[in-house]
């Protein structure tokens, strides 16, 4: 019982609740003095029957606190599409304690429900209090603070992002309409490819302001270039700043002018001979084609861990009002 009561302690602005908590804690300590096993008093003794009635009142008080807890504003994230990427994002969101309500929406209802149960068990294992719900009913995304969209037709080796355009556009129309209906105040992060076209379509269909519907690409593309530079120069990724902008696809542009190692511009590193201009060009080329490189290795799946992490860092920046400056579509 104590950990639960402990979690209620921060609600100090609610005096009635704080008094209630103190009185329950007192009753708990009295009960402990009266009985060795709280809640299982021995039959027959007068003292223990008093304990038994105390236990009854404690249970009522605990459920009272439980209902108070429900009335506190809970954060909600809806994951529309819970394949590899959507489920990984849900996992990271729960482990990062970003929200208390996590909704996994997918047309494959059984998979959404199954993953919700599995993720709920993992959260319990990690001591994280959050509720997962698997669903194929759009009404369940109601009042979501953040919607992360990964719903998509499958991609196979040899396909390009643009090959999914028409099929995924149809999916975005239904998702955009649902957002407009059920959570028009949400912050929407789209990851579905081809990204920039999907973001544009979602904005049109949902009618949300442009700043509320963004695409995750720049964060991931930048971190890939950063990783390549750190590997090549044998320095910590924490000391490398890399910026990649532009449409998510073959036309994205690593901005060498804005990339540096501990403030030293890439151009100066080239001048000093630590890396050649040709090597930088090769790293830029590889960074732009990473998705295809990984797809050609995995054949039927595109990368999902890093894209999920990038989307969650955007969601975190929004939910915690972190004032981050992040590249996005
Ligand atoms: P995958 O594991 O196939 O998951 C897609 C999920 O979408 C599946 O579970 C489907 O059942 C579900 N789905 C299909 N249609 C609908 C629908 N109408 N409503 C709800 N759910 C539906 O793919 P994934 O998770 O690996 O990737 C998802 C998308 O992200 C793809 O379009 C990828 O190309 C894209 N992606 C983008 C990046 C970026 O950097 C932008 C990176 C990696 C993947």
Overview of the molecule:
The structure is a single chain. The chain has 329 residues and is of the alpha/beta class. 52% of the residues lie in helices and 11% in strands. It has a 6-stranded parallel sheet, sandwiched between helices. Strands 7-10-11 form a 3-stranded antiparallel sheet. The chain has a two-stranded antiparallel ribbon with strand order 8-9. Helix 4 links the parallel strand 1 (76-80) and strand 2. It starts with a helix and ends in a 10-residue tail after the last helix. Mean pLDDT is 86; it is low at 1-13 and 34-44. 3-acetylpyridine adenine dinucleotide binds at residues 80-86, 106-108, 150-152, 154-155, 164, 171, 174, 191-193, 195, 216-217, 220, 248, 301-304, 307.
Write the layout of secondary structure elements.
Blueprint: H1 2-8, H2 15-34, H3 46-71, E1 76-80, H4 84-95, E2 101-105, H5 109-125, E3 131-135, E4 146-149, H6 165-182, E5 187-190, H7 195-206, E6 213-215, H8 218-233, E7 240-241, E8 244-245, E9 253-254, E10 260-261, E11 264-265, H9 266-271, H10 277-288, H11 290-298, H12 305-319
Parallel strand pairs: 1-2, 1-4, 2-3, 4-5, 5-6
Antiparallel strand pairs: 7-10, 8-9, 10-11
This protein binds 3-acetylpyridine adenine dinucleotide (A3D).
């Amino acid at each position: 019982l104590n950990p639960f009561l402990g979690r209620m302690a921060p609600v100090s602005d609610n005096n009635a609740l704080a008094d209630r908590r103190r009185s329950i804690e007192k009753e708990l300590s009295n009960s402990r003095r009266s009985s060795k096993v709280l809640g299982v008093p021995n039959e027959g003794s007068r003292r223990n029957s008093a304990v038994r009635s105390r236990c009854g009142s404690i249970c009522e008080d605990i459920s009272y606190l439980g209902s108070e807890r429900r009335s506190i504003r809970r954060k909600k994230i809806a994951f529309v599409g819970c394949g590899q990427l959507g489920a990984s994002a849900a996992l990271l969101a729960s482990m990062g304690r970003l929200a208390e309500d996590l909704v996994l929406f997918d047309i494959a209802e059984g998979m959404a429900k199954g993953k919700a149960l599995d993720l709920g068990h993992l959260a319990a294992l990690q001591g994280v209090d959050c509720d997962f719900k698997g669903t194929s009913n759009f009404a369940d995304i109601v009042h979501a603070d953040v919607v992360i969209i990964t719903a998509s037709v499958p991609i196979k080796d040899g396909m390009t992002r643009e090959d999914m355009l028409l099929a995924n556009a149809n999916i975005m129309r239904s998702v955009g309409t649902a957002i407009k209906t059920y959570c028009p105040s949400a912050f929407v992060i789209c990851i579905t490819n081809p990204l920039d076209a999907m973001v544009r379509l979602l904005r049109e269909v949902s009618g949300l302001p442009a700043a509320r519907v963004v695409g995750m690409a720049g964060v991931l593309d930048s971190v890939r270039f950063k990783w390549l530079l750190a590997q090549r120069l044998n320095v910590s990724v924490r000391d490398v700043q890399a910026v990649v902008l532009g449409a998510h696809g073959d036309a994205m542009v690593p901005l060498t002018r804005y990339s540096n190692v501990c403030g030293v511009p890439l151009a100066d590193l080239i001048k000093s001979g630590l890396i050649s201009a040709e090597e930088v060009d090769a790293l830029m080329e590889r960074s732009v084609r990473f998705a295809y490189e990984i797809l050609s290795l995995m054949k039927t799946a595109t990368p999902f861990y890093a894209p999920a992490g990038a989307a969650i860092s955007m969601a975190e920046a929004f939910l915690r009002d972190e004032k981050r400056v992040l590249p996005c579509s």
